[in-house]
Every structure is written in structure tokens, then in C-alpha cells.
């Protein structure tokens, strides 16, 4: 059965107050895109402002750039999609089977306080349709409130890039906030992998979260499985 996915990516290309580049962590988009594309499902890539999505150069390094991500990075049609994403404003009234927030440190700047993104996620979740987020993209869930005024993620089992992983990534001084601490402040049941930088995906009903870039492949598999149930 045909499914309709909204994949949300960042527009930010630099850390604030530094000359360090950031952006979308490529594998966190390519694996779900590849899995859905193989199914023949409809895919829409959108970003807060629309237009170009910068790719984090760290995600293109040989040690982390897997075969699937490399093939998409070298695909001019796919890269043109990233250069011309739709805006959230353009897609906010459409219906999707899954709304998926891809990560990258950049999302910490343009996801958490975006009112249109919050509205899309709230409507999606309250319609009992899947909301998924991976790594720093989980920050896009932080400030979403349900119609009753409670935070959507309060009491939910959830994961996301943890603070020790931020140490390993050497970005503790650059990031605008501590994602792990912020999630815990919302009253979530925070679940992280026993070994940092290893795959971890958490499912709590219609909410699916992945911890880090190394969860990209499993995340795609789990999302596809949940959509086909």
C-alpha cells in the first residue's frame, strides 16, 4: 500500500559564533529515503524555510560515509532535491503517514522553536500517525505541546544524541544546548545505548526515535516496519 512520508531537514549551515560548518547529517536522511524509495512510496523533503539544505562535512568523512549515503551524495537528482526543498509552510496542510525529522547539529538551531514544525508534529501525533526523529533531530520534539497544553514527549520513552556522545564528537562547546538534559527536563523516559555511538532505536506507540547517526539503518528499518503494520 502506498505511503506518504514527510522528511524534514535543516537550513542551517554554520554553528553560531564560530566558523565551523554544520548541516544535515547525510545518513540520517539517505537511509530512510532509500528504504521508502525502494517501496515506491511518496517522499517529500521539506525544511523550515525551504530551499537549500547544507550537508555537514563531518558526515561525508570516509569513516562515517556508508555506501548508500555515498551513492546519494553522488546522485545529482537527489542533491538537487536537497538544494530545493519545500518549506514547512508549503506542506503544513498535507496529510502524511510519517513525519520524520532528520538530524545533524544544525537542527538544534532551526527545529526546536519553529511554530510550523510544532503544529505539523502535534497534528500528526494526535491523528495517530507516526512521528519519527533521529539524533539531534529529536530536538524538534522538545517544545511540541499537545492540544491539552502538556508537552508531547512528557512520559514517553525516547532517545537522542547523548551528552557523552557530544564529548566524543568534540562539539560540547559549540552546541546551543545539551539535548540529553533538555529531554530529561521534559520528563521523558530517556533510553540510551549501553555503548556510545552504537545503534539504538526506541519505539513508544506512534513515536519512534533514534539515538545517533549509527542508528540510521535500523531507524529506517523500524519506521518501514511500523508503517507496514
By secondary-structure content and strand pairing, the structural class works out as: alpha/beta
**Strand arrangement in the largest pleated sheet:** 3-2-1-4-5-9-8
Classify the helix fraction into a percent range. 25-40%
- Which CATH class applies here? Alpha Beta
Q: Mean pLDDT score, rounded? A: 98
Spans of at least 5 consecutive residues whose pLDDT stays below 50 are none
Q: What is CATH's topology name?
A: Rossmann fold
Tally of helical runs = 9
From the alpha carbons, calculate the radius of gyration and give it in angstroms.
16 Å
Tally of structural domains: 1
What would you note in describing this structure?
- The protein has one domain: Class I glutamine amidotransferase (GATase) domain (Rossmann fold).
- It has 9 helices and 9 strands.
- It has helices at about 25-40, 65-75, 75-85, 90, 105-110, 115-125, 165-170, 180-185, 215-229; strands at about 5-10, 40-45, 85, 100, 130-135, 155-160, 190, 200-205, 205-210.
- The strands form 2 sheets. The chain has a 7-stranded mixed β-sheet. Strands 6-7 form a two-stranded parallel sheet.
- The radius of gyration is 16 Å and the shape is globular.
Topology at a glance:
Elements lengths: L3 E5 L18 H13 L2 E6 L19 H7 L2 H8 L2 E2 H4 L6 E4 L5 H4 L4 H12 L3 E5 L22 E2 L4 H6 L10 H7 L3 E2 L10 E4 L2 E4 L5 H13 L1
Provide a brief overview of the structure:
This protein is α/β, with parallel strands linked by helices and 229 residues long.
Amino acid at each position: 500500500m502506498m505511503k506518504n512520508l514527510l522528511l524534514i531537514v535543516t537550513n542551517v549551515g554554520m554553528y553560531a559564533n564560530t566558523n565551523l560548518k554544520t548541516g544535515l547529517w547525510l545518513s540520517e536522511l539517505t537511509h530512510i529515503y532509500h528504504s521508502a524509495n525502494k517501496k515506491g512510496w511518496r517522499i517529500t523533503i521539506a525544511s523550515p524555510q525551504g530551499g537549500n539544505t547544507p550537508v555537514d562535512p563531518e558526515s561525508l568523512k570516509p569513516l562515517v560515509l556508508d555506501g548508500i549515503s555515498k551513492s546519494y551524495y553522488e546522485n545529482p537528482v537527489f542533491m538537487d532535491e536537497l538544494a530545493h526543498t519545500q518549506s514547512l509552510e508549503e506542506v503544513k496542510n498535507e496529510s502524511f503517514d510519517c513525519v520524520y525529522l532528520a538530524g545533524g547539529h544544525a537542527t538544534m538551531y532551526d527545529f526546536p522553536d519553529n511554530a510550523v514544525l510544532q503544529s505539523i508534529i502535534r497534528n500528526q501525533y494526535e491523528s495517530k500517525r507516526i512521528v519519527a526523529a533521529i539524533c539531534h533531530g529529536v530536538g524538534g520534539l522538545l517544545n511540541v505541546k499537545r492540544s491539552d497544553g502538556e508537552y508531547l514527549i512528557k512520559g514517553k520513552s525516547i532517545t537522542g544524541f547523548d551528552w557523552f556522545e557530544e564529548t566524543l564528537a568534540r562539539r560540547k562547546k559549540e552546541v546551543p544546548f545539551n539535548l540529553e538534559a533538555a529531554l530529561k527536563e521534559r520528563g521523558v523516559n530517556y533510553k540510551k545505548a549501553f555503548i556510545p555511538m552504537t545503534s539504538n532505536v526506541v519505539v513508544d506507540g506512534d513515536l519512534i526515535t533514534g539515538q545517533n547517526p549509527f542508528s540510521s539503518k535500523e531507524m529506517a528499518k523500524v519506521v518501514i516496519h511500523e508503517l507496514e503494520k
